[in-house]
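for the recovery benchmark. tokens below, seq after
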């Protein structure tokens, strides 16, 4: 199974911000869209960074409410791991686990075309295990 399989079910909505926008702007997108991270991109949808709820919480903890006026570029992760449609789901799981992050942009060339979260990965894996369980159950029932 690949990232493309997950996106067939999940869809390809990408919510972005610009590096010069404020943390409050990013926070509003996160709240409105009920998501945990937003990609910082340029007009061509190239990934310039990613900012998550955790990044914003850390900024507020360090700088108080005034941190919400800071630009996203001041707090975003600049070295962003990305995946492609052909990336195997198990490789994405490994990447997220080793990197200790919960969101990864999906790119086609340099263009961001989707974002996958750990929730998407877990949901996919649970569906896969349930399918395998049903297949084994059906096979055993036929043999009995």
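predicted aa per position
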């Amino acid at each position: 199974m690949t990232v493309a399989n997950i996106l067939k079910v999940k869809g390809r909505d990408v919510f972005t911000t610009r590096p010069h926008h404020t943390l409050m702007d990013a926070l509003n997108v996160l709240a409105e869209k009920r998501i945990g991270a937003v990609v910082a991109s340029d007009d061509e949808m190239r990934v310039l960074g990613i900012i998550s709820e955790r990044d914003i919480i850390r900024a507020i903890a360090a700088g108080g409410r005034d941190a919400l006026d800071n630009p996203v570029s001041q707090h975003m992760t600049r070295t962003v791991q990305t995946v492609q449609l052909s990336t195997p789901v198990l490789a994405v799981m490994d990447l997220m686990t080793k990197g200790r992050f919960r969101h990864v942009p999906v790119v086609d060339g340099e263009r961001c075309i989707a974002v996958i979260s750990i929730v998407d990965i877990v949901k996919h894996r649970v569906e896969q295990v349930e399918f395998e369980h049903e297949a084994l159950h059906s096979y055993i029932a036929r043999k009995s």
